[in-house]
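Reminder to self: tokens first, then the designed residues, so the page reads top to bottom the way the pipeline ran.
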């Protein structure tokens, strides 16, 4: 087309028809400008498409992370509630409110007090987003806001885990290692054999259950468990909400 205009332009120049030459020259310029604009539009469309593809990839991976987290959270909440009930039972026994007549139950309850439950979030996709500076790829503000809120809850969770580890070591584990044969207790906990078969009896727990430090450790443990249960419920609620928004976003693609 441009070649065609050029031939006409030269023809009119030769015929000394200046006005017509100018018209065709302007037409040629307009065609060039239109071509450039179309090329830019195509380029912008391609860039937008690539950006959207990257966003979809991140959202898909975040969705998978959240789905795994929700399964882990349900498990952790259940474990924490069981741990709380077990520890509360020991405290009531120490206070003389609830006598324990079953040696196997006592052995298992005491051993369970050293078990440390841990929730580790699958936030590798979010970490990659922020470290690479690609968080701006996520256009939905609700998704970004929930991701940031969850990240703050994850930090609180990690701080709580570190704090709990110290409390366990200082107030529970030390007393257990001091007053109880951990090898016998471990076998009684994991194997389906009576604690008596490993030489355990109620007297083996007397000094432990008379330890004020151990009781205080149990009290602290239950306080921490309550905090974790509430925190995990909040993380679960926000994660569920985020998952629903992401599913809608992916469905609309």
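Designed residues (253 positions):
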């Amino acid at each position: 087309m441009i070649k065609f205009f050029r031939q006409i332009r030269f023809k009119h120049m030769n015929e000394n028809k200046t006005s017509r030459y100018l018209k065709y020259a302007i037409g040629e310029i307009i065609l060039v400008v239109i071509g450039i604009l179309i090329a830019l539009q195509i380029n912008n469309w391609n860039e937008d498409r690539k950006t959207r593809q990257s966003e979809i990839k991140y959202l898909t991976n975040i969705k998978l992370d959240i789905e795994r987290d929700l399964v882990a959270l349900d498990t952790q909440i259940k474990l924490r509630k069981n741990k709380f009930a077990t520890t509360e039972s020991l405290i009531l026994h120490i206070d003389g409110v609830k006598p324990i007549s079953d040696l196997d139950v006592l052995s298992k309850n005491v051993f369970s007090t050293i078990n440390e439950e841990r929730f580790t979030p699958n936030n590798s996709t979010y970490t990659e987003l922020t470290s690479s500076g690609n968080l701006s790829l996520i256009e939905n503000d609700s998704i970004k806001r929930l991701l940031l809120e969850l990240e703050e809850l994850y930090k609180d969770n990690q701080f709580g885990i570190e704090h709990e580890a110290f409390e366990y070591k200082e107030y529970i584990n030390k007393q257990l290692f001091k007053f109880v044969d951990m090898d016998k207790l471990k076998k009684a906990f994991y194997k389906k054999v009576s604690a008596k078969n490993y030489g355990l009896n109620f007297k083996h727990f007397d000094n432990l259950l008379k330890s004020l430090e151990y009781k205080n450790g149990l009290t602290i443990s239950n306080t921490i468990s309550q905090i974790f249960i509430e925190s995990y419920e909040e993380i679960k609620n926000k994660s569920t909400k985020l998952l629903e928004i992401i599913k809608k976003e992916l469905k609309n693609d």
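Residues 38 and 56 are 27 Å apart (CA to CA).
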